[in-house]
Automatic annotation (TrEMBL):
Keyword flag Lyase: no
Similarity field: Belongs to the peptidase M24B family.
GO molecular-function terms, A-Z: metal ion binding; metalloaminopeptidase activity
Keyword check for Plastid: no
Cofactor(s) required for function per UniProt: Zn(2+)
Name of the protein in question: Xaa-Pro aminopeptidase 2
Known role: Membrane-bound metalloprotease which catalyzes the removal of a penultimate prolyl residue from the N-termini of peptides, such as Arg-Pro-Pro. May play a role in the metabolism of the vasodilator bradykinin.
GO cellular component: plasma membrane; side of membrane
Biological processes annotated in GO: proteolysis
SUPFAM superfamilies: Creatinase/aminopeptidase, Creatinase/prolidase N-terminal domain
Amino acid sequence: MHISSAGSQRAGSVWLKMPSSVWLWALSVAVLTGNLFSAAAYERTERNCSLTPPYLPSTAVNTTLQLQELRGQMLPLNISAYIIPGTDAHLSEYIASRDARMAFMTGFTGSAGTAVVTQTKAALWTDSRYWVQAERQMDCNWELEKDVSIISVAEWLISEVPPGGNIGFDPFLFSLQTQESYAMSLESSNRILKSIPVNLVDQVWKERPPLPPYNLTRLPDRVIQRTWQMKVDQIRSVMTSNPYQPTALLLSALDETAWLFNLRGNDIPYNPFFYSYTLLTLDEIWLFVHTDRVSEDLKVYLSASCTGPLCVQLKSYDSVRENLKTYVAQPEVKVWIGTEYTNYALYEIITPQEKLMTSSYSPVLTTKAVKDETEERILREAHVRDAVAVIQLLIWLEKSVPKGNVTELSAAEYVNYCRSKQKDNKGPSFETISASGPNAALAHYSPSEGTSRRLTVDEMYLVDSGGQYLDGTTDITRTVHWGTPTDMQKEAFTRVLMGNIEISQTVFPSGTSGVRIEMLGRRALWEVGLNYGHGTGHGVGNYFGVHEWPVGFQTNNIPFRAGMFTSIEPGYYKENDFGIRIEDIAVTIPVHTKYGHNFLTFDTVSLVPYDRKLIDTSLLSAKQLQWLNKYYETIRRLVGPELDKQGLHEEKDWMLRNTEPFTEAGSSASVCSSSLTLIALVFALHNVV
């Protein structure tokens, strides 16, 4: 369980005041029960910079040398401050270890944050999920700013940088929005934001991790419907039909190039991507990669030895800026970029503005969002095999948890082991969220050696996990209880399930934005004053990212069309007590209605039953029960044969027991549910994008 920094210090002072005999007794209990962090939790685990000398835990990293060397790099450039974001040049969700510049400079390894260094100070900004972690990992060279807003960073810079001072940044690590936000916040302060294309941290990072061993591969024919040449022609057709007449399309997000050429790599954790950019013109293709890692077979595959419109010209990854500058210098050219994933280093050289065309997402991302027939079929197949692995996990937990020998960490490892036995598995699609009791109240908690709790029959358990398969990417969350749940836990779980069902069974016009539907996932919770603080769903790819933009239920997602895959994942989290999330992947499919002909609904492709003891059927409407029973019939129909094929008789018996149909029961909620669904659909009809 993460607790606040202040809370940790208070707890530490209590332990320091205890008699040694009491301390040793309590420590022994902690080790034996396993229900607290670990024995190490009762040591002083956070820094205390107010002491003389300062107290630093063993987890803190000495950053004196790298700060000294970075400041040395700043001096000749006349830089008063240097901003270090926690991202890479492709604005990726996950970054490789060689791009973890913020972690190298600060010692802090959280996934979100911004560091700033001046000649006399250094500060880190991160959100509340990571405050305790930062206090444990940073030494006293660093201040912790408990905020994440650019306004907060800018205010600190104004207070620390003298008027007229330069604030340096690597434009490859800034999105267009980030650069604009800093520029606006500093606009009237007489501080100058200075773009420095050579990263200063890289200049002092002597042991920066090298590129991983290369494994750039083409997808086998059995998992693709469109060749890369067909995709290039398709995207060029979008370009020529655009009224603004772009002559080139710049692809910066890593999944864009991987999709276009049907290639996969291993440069990024959990994601089969490789460092790359693409400049696609109407008659040329420039692929920017580390060319020494492209095999001869791939060069033949990409037709790299010719110069025609379907020949890929391989160029050095690091030369993208100079090559783009050369292209833009030509007369009568216009470069189309997607602003969400293009870094500022490439944007700033596309001048004048007449040579630039922008949209939030590139046509590759919007085209990729709609799966073709083969992609849809194989992604469904991957979810069938994935269900087998999750069922094996749930059976193992049922047997092992009562014995007291399972921790959050061992459960996370076991589900990944089960997936590794399935056909075409390529590893996990993200770090497994395995959380019990109060840890599950932290929506994105993942266990570590220091925080992993022992699972017990007296607490709820949430597992959010996924796999990468050659034919698809999976993401599924189930919440279970092996003992006797409280009435409140059952009601909260059932209302979360009701939200999942309400979205899953809704019918809506094609072209409806997900944000118009999202409230259906919250309605049953809202009725009793409950809610959740995260998004309700995200896109998912075919052996791609588990969070695949731009599909989902947020305001900046594109409207739904047939063939889009999204997660549906309402939840509820009671602080310091328990957490509930039910997440399924679903695909949008056409549906026949009485009068309309262009309507969609969701078809759930995740195929693992929900915990029966947590479902209060008296709260479900007849329509919701009908949907649930039909879903269980689908699990039996699709997963049953796969279990037979793999000879998993115990798993099949478990699946059959847990997909027994529920008794139909009337409920006053049915009227409320139907009425609210109708209201939501009317709202959607008036807001179709």
